[in-house]
Each structure stands twice: as C-alpha cells, then as structure tokens.
Amino acid sequence: MPLSPTLSPHITKTSPYLTAQETIDQLQDDFLDLDISLPSSRGNERAGKRSPRLSAVGGGGGKKLGKKKVRSREIAEGECHLLKLPVDLLQELLARLPPRSLSILSQTCKALRGDLEDESIWRRSYVHRFLGSANPGEVQVLVQPSGDEGRGWRKESLAREMMLDRWTASKANSCMHHPPVGLIHALSLSYPPHVPSTSKLVVGKNQTPTKSSPAPTPSDDSPGTPKLTHRQKYEALLAATTRPAPYVLSAGLAAGGVVRSDPLNGKVTKGYWGPGRDANFHLRPHLDQLSPPTAVHLPARRQTAVLWGLLTGTVVHTTMGMKSHASQGGRASSTNVFSAVDDAHEGEIRCVWAEEGEDAHWVTSGEDGRVKFWRVTAAQPRTGPGKKAVSGETAGSMECVFTSRPPIGPLENRSDATKLRTTQRPDPVVLARCHAATGTVCGVTEDGDLRVWFGVEEAMTEVRVDVGSSEDGPVKRLELDMLDQRNAALLVHHHLSDVVSRWDVCIDGTVKRTDFASGAAITALHVALHPSAPIATPSPPNTVGTDDIPLLSPTATPPPIDLNKHQFGRYVITGDENGIVSIFGWDTVGDLETIRPIRSWEAANHKITAIDASSSLVAIGSCAGYINIYDPLSPDPTPLRSFHANHLSVADRAIAGSTQFEALYYTPNQIILEHDLVVASIGRKVFYWRAGSGKKREAGSKGRGRGGGTTGGGGRAVDMRSAHQDAEEDHLALRHDVTPTPNRLQTRQNNMLENMGLEDPDDAVQYAMMLSMEEANASGSGIGSGSARGVGYGAGGGPMDDEDEEGGVESDGEAEALEAVRKLEEAERKEREEVLEVVRRAEMRGE
C-alpha cells in the first residue's frame, strides 16, 4: 500500500509563496513525520550513511547536528524488519538460504550475526543447498568433511561451495607419466611435510621477549587454546593454500619395488623400496629372481611402511622414510625386516593386508590354506651425534602371533570333485582381514569357505560360514567391520555377481545375511567402513546439542541425538557393467534381506572399472578410458568434470571391456580422489590432475609470471593448451574477416551470371555441360529422322518426300518452321559461347 504522508501544518493557503530555505525546511519536516524505518538495528556495525543533505538536518528549523548525534539518532530510530518475525519462522527462513547468502547477511546486522552463531541453521542450510529434501539417514551416510574435523557447519558449507567452484571452473591441465614398475598393483599419495618459513619481524606483531617483558605463556586453567593473531592466521592460510603437490608412490610386482615420482613433471626419485636384500644397491627397481614378490600392501593415504609377501612364503616389512639418508647418497633406501623361516608360509603368499594407519600388526594368507597374524618392531637407521646418519641400522624383529589350522573337512553342499580336492589338500586362502584392537582375524577361499577367529591373542574362538560356492563366482572382495568384541560384520562379493552380501557373525555362531542388490553384474566396488570425522564438535552427553538435530519444520519434534559415531559416513558404492553407480548405507540394515540404494545414477556408457570417494565426491573410471567426477549429494547427482585419460582404438576398447587379464593394461584400475585432485593408475601409466585457482584471464590481459614461464614447487599447472587454442581462433577470425575487393572485370562477370540466373562459376559449368548434352541429343535425333523418312521421285524425275506428294502448301509451312528452329539454335549457340567464355575467364582468375 503506498504511503500517504500528512502535510505539515506550516503549509497554509495564506502563504502560497515561500522562500527557498523555508520550502526546504518544511519538506524536511514532512519527511521526518513519515513512519519509515531504516533497515538497520541498534547493534548494526556498518550502518548505511545518510545523504549529505539529510545529514545536516537537525530536530527542526534547519539546525545542523554533529556526526555523533546524527549517528545516534539514526541507530535509535532504525531497526531490522527480520527481527520482528517469530524466532522459529526466522530460523526457518535463514535455513532456506544458501551458505554464501547467509555469510553476506551476517555482515549486515550484529543481531543476525548472533542468531547465525547457531550451528543448526548452517547445518540445515547445508542440507537444503546440497542435498535438497533429504532425510537424516541420507545426511549421516553421504556427508563427509572436506577439511579438518570439528570446524563446524559454517566453515564446511562455505568450503564446499569453493571446492565445487574449483572443480568446475579450473583450467589446469592433466599430466601423465610412466613409473618404471610395470603393471601398477598399488597406488598411494605422500604429502611432503610443510616446513614453515622463518617469521620475519613485523612491528606490532612479532616481538622478541626480553628479561623485562617475558613472553606470555598460557596458564593451565585457561580454557581452550590461546587466540591467534592476524599474522598467525595469515601464515596458516598461506601454508594451506600453497601446499606442494603430493608425491605418487607406485608399487609393481613385476619389478618388485615401490618408486616415488613427482606427478607434475614425471620425475622419478633415485632409488626404490623393495623386499630384496640388495634393494639399496640399485637406482631402479630390481627383481630378485630367487624370491619374487607375489603380494603387496601399500596404504592409499597414510603410509609409513610397505608389506610384501614373497613366492617362498616369507613376509617382509619395509620401513619408508620420507627423507633419504645422507649415508646412501641422497636417495631412498629400504629398511627391511624379514620373517623367520619357521614362521613362513608353505608356498606363495596370496594376500597381505593391514588396517589404515596400523603398521605394527597385519595378516597374511597363503597357498597352504593358512592365515597368520603378525606383529613387528620396525628397524630404524642408526643416528650419530647431531642426528647424523651412520652406516648400519638397529635390528628389527617380527613375530607370528597366530597361525590357523587347516579346515577339518569340506563344506557339506559342495560337489564331489570339490570334496575330493579339499580332502587331499586345503584350498588356498585368497583374501584375509584383521582387526588389531579386538584381535579378530578372518580369511576366505575362492570356493566361499569363510572362517572368523575371535580373540586370537587370548581365548580363540572359530566360526565357519559358507558364503557361496565358486559356481556363483570366485570370491573377489572381503572386508571386516567389528561392531564390538563379540560381533563382526563382513562384506563378501563374488566375481560378476549382482549383489554384495553383508554377513553378521556372532561369536556364538549366529549368522545373518543382508544383500545390497544392483541391477547388473558388479565390476567395481568401494567400501568405506571407518566412520568419518565429525564436522561439528559433538555435544556432551548431559547437554542437548542443536547441531545434530535435523529441524525440518518449525513445529517438528526434534528426534533424540544419536551419539554413535559409527553411523556417520559409512557406505558401500558399487559400479556395474552397464555404467550404473549405486550408493548403499552400511548401517541401514534392518529386518529386510535386500537393501535398496540411497543414490543410483548412470555415470558412464561402459563398464565401470574403478571407484573412489572422498569429501562427498565420487570418482568413476570406465573401460573406455574416461574418469568422471560427480557430486552425489543432490537427489540427481551432478557431474563436475570428465577426463579422457586414455584414448583407445576399437581393438583396444574391445580388450578393455572383456574379462581378460590384459584388460588391466587399458583401463583405470585404481583411483585416489582428494578434495582438489585425482590420481589414477591406468596399466603402466599414472594419470594426475589438480585443480587450479579457478581464476580465468580476461581477453587482452597479461598474467603475472616469472620470466622463465615455469611454475614453482607449490604452484599450479599453466594452462598453455587453452591459450594456444584461443590464439588459433583469433588467427582464423582475422583471416576470415579480410575479404578481397572485386575488380571491374569480376564485377561485370558476376552481373552477367546474375542476369542468367546463376550464382557462381560452378553453376555456369554445370549449365554449359547440360546444354552440350542437349545439343548432342538433338543432332543424333535429326540424323535418325532423316534416314527413316521415305524418299520418292516426282514428275520431274527428282527426289521428293512423301509429304510433297500430297501438296505444296505444307512444304511452305515446314520451311518457315525450319527457319525458326535455325534461328533458335543460333541464339542458343551464341549463349553457350558467352557462358563458356565466362567460365574460361573464371578459371583463369582462379589460377
């Protein structure tokens, strides 16, 4: 409704003419009488400045006020209309805004900033922005932090917005290099430690403590950590944004070693880590022919050691130091610990595995059908005075804690051939897993004979489970998740099966099966059973925290808080042969025997060969050589970026899509995804891409760079391909814009062609050829008609046609017709000559 101000009583009919100053004073009085509230509040830090004309207005009579009085009057009269709304409605409106809008809104009003300190508003804004209408179960499964744990939903929301922008807007190039290890069996990322630079002296920031003014030390009873200064915050931000690119560790069984390379330039570090006794005497991986490795375990992100299983049944623990020893000439060296001969397997080792971040305990399984649990005291290089490395090393020790016995007999529901084979010799255990905290070990054969041992270091209890015979496909994946001391959940997947099974095994022998069903044969699998780090700091048990309450409506009853951290960020991702990706919640197991996926979408047109997930992003690798990045939080997952990492021919694509062993040389076999980079192993090659700053250069502007044109150690890749493409497009545009000016002869020829109804010389050539064909046909038909005509003799004895015998009138008519035809042919002949002349000149001009 429009405002209808009331006129001031100073304006009357008796004074129709007023001076300029009186008119301004009266209009200002009328404006002061209006009931208009300014969009500010009492605690507004950055209130809008008033107009200079209105700033000079006082309480009346044109009297000027000082700046402080005008400011105080403005704050007293101003208010924020949002604060008049009910609290629950205001929170609901704020939760509907995107995180960036909330951040901008918090800078306009101190009262709103205080309301936005509530983490529940930012959590609901995160859900509405990225997940849409999602239930609390989906939030607990899909949401993962993209940074440090416990930093809060506000920082997490804004950081995810920036991360998605970098994935979509970055113009950095991808890199490809070939580590000298043959077919890559394991891939890992190693971040170099950040060494902060020496702080420079800044007046008022960094002060050297003296005897008179000692440096302040935080007291023990002071709550929390000391507050950081602006300088410290700046240095921390600089260290986080300019961190160097991680090194790539590639392990290959064909070469028998692990090498470290720089993915930006493909340079391989001297030396390697290997299980051989002479590994330190070679610059490149050297295979020991007497005991080649048959199994290797290299953690993907947290690696301090490499575990090897040899053909002879020996287990090797290799300590990896990120800094090369000075006594070895500045190159990587292997510090190995070998197992005793009595503790080795009787045959080759089929599997060696350890938990993420747990290098002191691991499990192995071998051809002899046994499972062993190991403990190691790693060897360390000796150091002299001043941390100077000397020759030699402190001896390490390895101990076999547990060794399983062969099974008593074959399973009941097996064929006679299988029973006869297992009676003579037990089947090899192809996969093994362990949990060091509870002392639980498990192993499975290809025929589906699963055995679980509880408490291997104390009172051991064995439970045997039949998870399906090899007729359904050999077992290709096994994972262990310990719920407590007595209950274990195991994931089992058979080769080319369309289901992934979860087996809940209790120590008393109780077994329960739950299937995660897909629509086609599953060819790739990613399992995340370890709980993700909490985004917000959990509230104490005796207080009610609003951070974990999903308030979906102002009147909704908040559900009770579940403090079980195992129900956050645990999922299973499957990829099938049709290119369909499905995400299942690992803890969404109820009374149903088959679990439906939380998210399912078509991620590729071909078979999926590798999957990885991190920071609530999913990376997909297909047999066609593509690597696709998706945001799975929205109900319809959004594609962020696609890479054609490996270009394949038709024959190579046929091999890559098959189940042959040679397909591993053409397809992405392993993917590691971080919040701003992706690394993949494709046969013998390593693909690497890291997002740039996301800033694009404007046309005609010059970027700031060094004279050499190269990036520093912590910089991003220079996008030279896009610059070259832009230069080519500009060059072609300049060439097309320059059009030649036709001369007088060309103008006359073009006019002649236009008068004849022809567009260009090509049409003229076609028209001339058509006329030539018509002339040839006409001459042939004239000769044929003359020979077929009957010829007679008249009264004078000369030849005479049949028509002349009938009368002479018709002969006169035919003569006139023949004359007309002759003239028409003459005109057509002249026209053809003109056309041919035009064509000849056009051809000469073209030459």
Q: Level of helix content?
A: 25-40%
Structural class: alpha+beta
Percentage of residues in DSSP E strands: 15-25%
The coarse silhouette is extended
The separation of the N and C termini measures 78 Å
Radius of gyration: 42 Å
What kind of assembly state do the chains in view correspond to? single chain
Instruction: Give a quick account of the main beta sheet: strands, pairing sense, barrel closure.
Output: 5 strands, mixed
> What is the number of helical segments per DSSP (H or I, 4+ residues)?
17
Give the neighbour order of strands across the main sheet: 19-20-21-22-26
Average pLDDT score: 75
Key features?
847 residues, alpha+beta, 5-stranded mixed sheet, 4-stranded antiparallel sheet, 17 helices, 26% helix, 24% strand, WD40_rpt, WD40/YVTN_repeat-like_dom_sf
Could you provide a short overview of the structure?
The protein is an alpha+beta fold and 847 residues long. It is 26% helix and 24% strand. The strands form 10 sheets. The chain has a 5-stranded mixed beta sheet with strand order 19-20-21-22-26, with no helix packed on it. A 4-stranded antiparallel beta sheet has the order 1-34-33-32, with no helix packed on it. The chain has a 4-stranded antiparallel beta sheet with strand order 5-6-7-8, with no helix packed on it.
